[in-house]
Structure to design on (331 residues):
């Protein structure tokens, strides 16, 4: 099925080009309207193609800033191949500052491989996977904890390698990016990383802070890491490429449900540990308080596994099913 999205830019054209992906969207206010998804391309010479994506979730702002900044900074004469920039991938969500689209409730990073005849979010997912990733060798998808979570520092995520050769390539890329932590996890077919894998591309996803704010230091680290990585794979040369990655990378593994802590009561949660702290199985993680029933004792929630606290809930108010903590275990 053919996508209804029409690009204002020619991805085969040399040089820097900016415009919009036009997704037809007929509503009461605008019968023949379209959703304007910002897109840009810098193409020069021969080399790999890299898709740089922010705004997969609309309340994650670091990637939106970073992708836009790199588009302004990188000059075409220093590119060998192509860089495709998608700063607000799920534009309706990013425009509204929401994790999911206000048009259809769609979570873009749970919508791949998409549907060209579906709701707006699934149409966007289909275009990213089958038009943009199909011509790319690499995906850099910039995330953070969004409004409800905050990650400890700058982190990278990648799908567990399938063989020794892919393991070597992936670890080389992660080390070239140079963020402090790299998490290896099992594949989720609905994620952008799996979309990239289906199209033959290697992907790195970041988690840069969160809590609905932007931390300048994390942006600085991520910018240096991306520029060094682009130099490592040969798509970028020139004065912007750092001589070394921002730092050394330590590898972690996320081992399924036991590395997550959830609330089982509605109330106000009090964390009992700090981000970056190493914890053990059975250790108290948080207390949930009940101000609406002041004589009721708080409930204590414990960790099910050992690991390092890499992410915690940013908001104190919780409901049953809300994630409080996320652990990872050093490899």
């Amino acid at each position: 099925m053919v996508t209804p999205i029409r690009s204002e830019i020619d991805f085969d054209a040399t040089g820097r080009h900016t415009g919009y992906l036009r997704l037809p969207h007929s509503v009461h206010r605008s019968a023949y309207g379209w959703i304007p998804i910002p897109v840009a391309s810098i193409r020069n010479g021969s080399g790999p193609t890299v898709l740089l994506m922010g705004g997969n979730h609309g309340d994650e702002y670091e990637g939106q800033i970073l992708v836009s900044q790199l588009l302004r900074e990188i000059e075409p004469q220093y590119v060998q191949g192509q860089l495709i920039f998608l700063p607000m991938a799920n534009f309706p969500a990013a425009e509204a500052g929401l994790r999911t689209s206000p048009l259809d409730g769609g979570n873009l990073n749970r919508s791949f491989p998409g549907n060209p005849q579906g709701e707006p979010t699934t149409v966007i997912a289909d275009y990213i996977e089958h038009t943009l990733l199909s011509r790319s060798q690499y995906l850099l998808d910039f995330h953070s904890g969004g409004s409800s979570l905050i990650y400890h520092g700058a982190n990278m995520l990648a799908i567990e390698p399938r063989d020794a050769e892919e393991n070597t390539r992936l670890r080389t890329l992660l080390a070239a990016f140079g963020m402090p932590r790299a998490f290896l996890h099992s594949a989720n077919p609905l994620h952008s990383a799996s979309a990239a894998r289906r199209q033959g591309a290697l992907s790195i996803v970041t988690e840069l802070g969160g809590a609905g704010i932007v931390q300048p230091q994390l942006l600085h680290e991520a910018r240096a890491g991306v520029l060094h990585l682009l130099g490592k794979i040969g798509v970028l040369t020139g004065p912007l490429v750092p001589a070394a990655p921002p730092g050394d990378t330590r590898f972690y593994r996320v081992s399924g449900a036991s590395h997550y802590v959830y609330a089982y009561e509605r109330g106000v949660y009090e964390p009992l540990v700090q981000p970056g702290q190493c914890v053990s199985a059975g250790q108290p993680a948080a207390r949930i308080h009940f101000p609406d029933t002041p004589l009721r004792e708080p409930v204590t929630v414990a960790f099910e596994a050992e690991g390092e606290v890499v992410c915690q809930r940013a908001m104190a108010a919780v409901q049953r099913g809300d994630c409080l903590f996320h652990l990872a275990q050093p490899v």
The domain at 6-253 is CATH 3.40.630.10 (Aminopeptidase). The chain has six helices and 18 strands. The chain has a mean pLDDT of 97. Residues 52 and 265 are 39 Å apart (CA to CA).
